[in-house]
Structure formats: structure tokens, C-alpha cells
Amino acid sequence: MISRIHAFDALDNFRDYGGYGTAAGQALKAGRLFRAAHQASVTGADLERLGALDIGVVVDLRRPVERRRQPSKRPANFTGTVFESDLDEAGEAPHITFLKTADLTPDSGRRFMTATYRHLPFAPAHLDLFARYFRALGDSDRPVLIHCAAGKDRTGMLAALTHHLMGVGHDDLMEDYLLTNTAVDLVGRAPGIAEQLKALTGRVASHDAVVAFMGVEPAYLDAAIAAMTERHGSIDGYLEQALGVDGPLRDRIADRLSA
Fold it and tell me: Residue 188 burial by CB count (10 A; 0-12/13-18/19+): exposed, middle or buried?
């Protein structure tokens, strides 16, 4: 078992999502697939650690307003390619609108997150970035880093799609998705997050409401998978029809990522 969670000074939820076994009796290479939260607050030591990973592609899944508010920092020796999208430029991020306007309860948080996940696979920016990411997996021999703001929802779904594509079992796929709750110490940080939400909204959110909204649960990812299946017949149908991940591209990805 590889050490999945990498410790940084000011970079949350940085993990290796390789190393899992596949249905073909192989395994994903470790040290090639990384996921994280944003890199706006990293320290100099963090940048040195990132530079040592030799990341060749960074997929920034955030909206333009998020990127402007928290611009990424890069290592001094960074020579990789950064994928971004401006297709979701208009308006405030939906989760900010929710936090400002909705009753902050566990049930409302779960309803919002479930509805959000049903739409995530089909947002124009995600269709664009997910497709470019999979093409990069088939073309690049250097490590790839995917991230959004917290590294849990958009990032978690893209990592899960990668695991499915490579034949990682559903239990391992879900385990990796849920590891966010451990990596960010959600329970321990909930009180501080509640204070931040109070400053943002002027309202008090319970501990359970914070955990429901800021964490990940199996039902959230299941909702995305159900939506893909409804529109495209299966996850594989979504990958091929929505993202262009056809047989030849799948083979190239497998060649590069199989240990």
C-alpha cells in the first residue's frame, strides 16, 4: 500500500490516486496521478516539494472567479502545461449562493450536494477539461495533477472516472473518493469552518451541517454515476460519447498508467 496522503504546510488534500489494483490483475502506477485542493497558499517549502514531483500537466477545474480570487502558485522549475476553462465564467459559484441563501442544515446540505453531483458531469467546463485530461493521460509520460478548490467534488469525480476507466474495483474507487474526509480532518476542522460560514453568511451552521456540506458521502458520487447512466447508458458510455474516450485512447492510457 502506497502512502496516499502527502503532507504539505499549506496545501490541503494532496494525494496519490494511483497504486490501486485493476480487474486485469495489474495496478495503476504510483507517483503518476495526483489530486489536491488549490495551490494559492503554498509555502516556499511546499513549492519545492511540488517541483520535485516533476508534474507535467495540471488540470485546474475551478471557475474563472475562483482562479482570480485564489491564483495558483507554481514551482520555480515548473515546465508543465496547465489546463483551465472559461466556459463557466458567468455568475457566482453555486455553492456560494447556496451558503448565502439556504438554511444550513444536514438535510439541505445533502440535498444540495446530491443535486450538484447530478449536474457536474455535464457542465460545459467539465466536459472540456475532462476530455483534455484524458487525452493528456494518453499522451504524457509525466505525472498529472488534478485539483479544484477543495479537491473533493470536481476532483473526486474525475479521479473516480479515471479509476473506472482503468478497471479499479468500485470499493477501491469509493475508498479513494471518501479519503477526502480523512485527508482534510473534516471532523476536527468543522468548528473552524462553521465560524468561516458565519462570517460569510451571518448565520450559524451546526457541526453536522458542516460535515454534510464540506465532506463527501457515497450518495453524492452515486448520484453522478446515476446521471451519467441515465444519459449515456453507463459510465463507459459517458466516457466515450461525452468525453471522446474511445478504444484507442483507452489503450494508450492503459499503456502509460499500468504498472
Answer: exposed
CA distance 257 to 132: 17
Strands 81-83 and 57-60: parallel
Q: Counting every residue, how long is the chain?
A: 259
Count other Cβ atoms within 10 Å, centred on residue 61. 26
CA 243/CA 153 separation, integer angstroms: 18
pLDDT at residue 239, rounded to an integer? 98
The dihedral formed by the CA atoms of 236, 239, 241 and 243, expressed in degrees to the nearest 10: 180
Look at strands 144-147 and 81-83 and give their pairing: unpaired
CB contact at 8 A, 151 and 13:
yes
Beta pairing partners, 83: 59
Average pLDDT, the chain: 92
* Residue 89, Cβ density class (10 Å: 0-12 exposed, 13-18 middle, ≥19 buried): exposed
Residue type, 15: R
- Maximum C-alpha span of the chain: 53
Angle at 37 between CA 34 and CA 39, to 5 degrees: 95
Most confident of 21-25, 111-115, 174-178: 174-178
Query: Does residue 218 surpass a pLDDT of 80?
Result: yes
> Torsion angle of alpha carbons 180, 115, 122, 20, nearest 10°?
30
